[in-house]
Structures are given as structure tokens and as C-alpha cells.
Amino acid sequence: TGSESPIVVVLSGSMEPAFFRGDLLFLTNYREEPIRVGEIVVFKIEGRDIPIVHRVLKVHEKEDGKVKFLTKGDNNSVDDRGLYAPGQLWLEKKDVVGRARGFVPYVGIVTILMNDYPKFKYAILACLGLFVLIHRE
Amino acid sequence: MNTFLSRLNTIFAFTLSVMAALTFCCFLTTAFNSHKASVYLGTGKAIVKNVPDYSANREKSDLGFIVFDMTADLTKIFNWNVKQLFLYLTAEYETKDHQLNQVVIWDKIIRRGENAMLDYRSINTKYYFWDYGNGLKGNKNVTLTLSWNVIPNAGTLPKVMGEGSHKFKFPDEYSANRF
Fold first, then answer.
1. Helices marked H in chain B
2. Checking CA distances to B18, which of A31, A86, B3, B118 falls within 20 to 30 Å?
3. ipTM confidence score
4. pTM: predicted TM-score of the whole model, two decimal places
5. Is A60 part of the annotated catalytic residue set?
6. Which stretches make up the Peptidase S24/S26A/S26B/S26C domain (chain A) (predicted)?
7. DSSP letters along A54-105, please?
8. Which of A3, A14, A23, A95 does the annotation list as catalytic?
9. How many CA within 13 A on the CB side of residue B169?
10. Which of the residues A80, A95, A116, A135 is marked catalytic?
11. Residue of chain A nearest B126, judged by CA positions
12. A59 contacts chain B (CB < 8 A)
């Protein structure tokens, strides 16, 4: 699909009521496909690891293909300029991890639970380990 | 104890596979729907000002003000696999700095079950119509289109443009008046 991580879990509530925390998104990132308004893009701000899933609000493209665009979460009242790096006013193609093409609800809740409650993660690992040990085939 | 655990494991794995198959069937039943509808759009007064854009680079940029009308009936697009429609009104135009500009000036979320008939007269835009530069004054061809993003319960997320667009012009002079 051309994206470095073709499946992502929605981490915040900024795209409600379309996507809630724990939903799974399938991404593609074909470089030749142009960025247009209304698309749901997953992007990273330089210097930060966390991918953000928001919708494109404005696009300004030059003849040579260089494009600057602005994003906003559906559930946010302001656009994302406050989230970008200091001095950064627009996103460019290089910031995009992928475009959301498909969606399955709830399935990613396990990764969020494991991040928020590390004890849960250890408990699962312990159970799996126990299961492997006592399973006789 | 041993067989209890392996039975539990088998049931769990089977449940997961059945749920995955059901979700896929759910997606298939509505995967080939067309989601199209026709839209009527019109504009009233349109003016352009040239003021510093404090939300961006603080340079003087063109800021457009328009009022518009919109009529559309989207009730046929909803089915059991459509959770909501995200509507957005796009203004698309060309300037000498940028070959393609698309600005969303209004949007709305309609959930399944809510009223899907739109009939707006002379409403203001929701977002500021800033250009990246000074390309709105005298711009002869600004096209308004209404599109929607279909958000399913599970499946693909298509964007569909409504049938019916509207072109308008901005005046050749900046306006110093209140809108």
C-alpha cells in the first residue's frame, strides 16, 4: 500500500463521532495521488512520534506539484496550526504517513488498553507464557 | 484443566474468526452503493478584502466573504452501514501563485437518523475564506461544490461529490465596507 504503517489505531477523540479511540484505520500512501480537501490523512509533526488522524481543510498546489495543506479534526473547533511545529503553518507531502481508506471499529482497543494500563499488558503476557508452558499436544 | 483451556482457546479463536467474517460481509453488502445525490448551490453577495492574516504568516492576504444558498436531499444515501456523512462545501479556484486552491468554507456532520434534507438560504460561511496570497480579487471563476465523506460502520471511506456546482466571481476592487 506504499505506507510505512498501513494500519493505525485512532488514539484521540478529535475525529468523533466518525472515529473513536480504539478504531482501526487502513491506510494507503500512493505518492502520485494528489492531496485534496475532505481526505482523512494521517501525518506526523517533525520531531514528534505520534501520528495524528485529521481531515484536510485547505489545499494550495503549485504547477510543479509542490503542495501546502492545512488540517483540522472534525471534533475540534480550530484548525491544526496550534499542533504543528513552531513556525510551521502548513503541512507538506513529506509529513503524510498515509490516507485513510477503510475502517473497522473497536478492534484497536486492545493496543490502547495495553498502553494505558501496563499491568494489563504484563497480565496478558503472563497468561500467554503460562498457556505455552502447560499446553500439551 | 488442560482440555478446558484448549476448549476456551478454540472458542475464542473461532469467535474472532466469525466476527471478522461478519464484519467483512457487512462491508460487502454496501460496498457497491453509489452514494450520489444532486445538490443546488447559489451565492448572494461576494466581496474581497485585503487584510493581514494573523492566523498564518501575518502578511496581507485576500479574504473573501460570501453568502450562499444550498438545497439537497441526502436521505437516500443512508443505509444500515452508513454511520454518518461528513459534508463539506469546497471553493476551488486558480490564482497566479497556485494552480489549484481548494478551501473548505463550511462543513456539517449528519448522523444516521438525523434530518438529511438541507435547505439553507443566505447563510454565512463557517470558516474564513483566506487565500494563500492575493489571488481572490477579480477572480473570475470560483467553483463551489458540496461533497460528502461516507463513514460506514465498517468498510471503505469514499468521498463523493454532489451533482451540481456553482461558479461565481469576486469583484475587481477590494471592499472597505462591513459585510
1. 2-29
2. B3
3. 0.85
4. 0.85
5. no
6. 5-81
7. EEEEEEEE-TTS-EEEEEE-TT-SS-GGGTSPTT---B-GGGEEEEEEEEES
8. A14
9. 6
10. A80
11. A77
12. yes
